[in-house]
Design goal:
The chain is mainly beta. The protein has 2 helices and 6 strands.
């Protein structure tokens, strides 16, 4: 079970992804994994079956405290992930930087 501060961090660092395509809006979820970078599924932002996947349209991440444009900078078609570079840092309502999610749990919780 996550402690309340861990739940707050998870909530703050999770974004809804929207991509405006010629066929309408595509949606998914992304996670802030480093300052200025988020991780999502490739099929959310691009055609993963294309030889050279590119974003299907403008990508925007909607965090609870702010929205930010993003650019596809790396992907893996087989693993279906996309690394997005954010146009700006994400801050909370108080103006403090949102902490990225840890990629592994602290040793004390294992």
């Amino acid at each position: 079970m996550l402690a309340s501060d861990e739940r707050r961090q998870l909530h703050a660092a999770t974004a809804r992804v929207t991509v405006e395509t010629t066929h309408g809006e595509q949606r998914g979820t992304a996670f802030l994994i480093a300052d200025g970078y988020a991780l999502t599924a490739l099929h959310v932002v691009a055609d993963r079956h294309s030889d050279q996947p590119v974003a299907l349209g403008p990508v925007r991440l909607w965090f609870p405290s702010a929205s930010v444009e993003a650019t596809l900078v790396f992907h893996d078609r087989q693993q279906d992930f996309a690394l997005l570079r954010l146009a700006s840092s994400v801050c909370d309502e108080a103006g403090q930087p949102v902490s990225p999610l840890p990629l592994s749990p602290p040793a004390t919780t294992l």
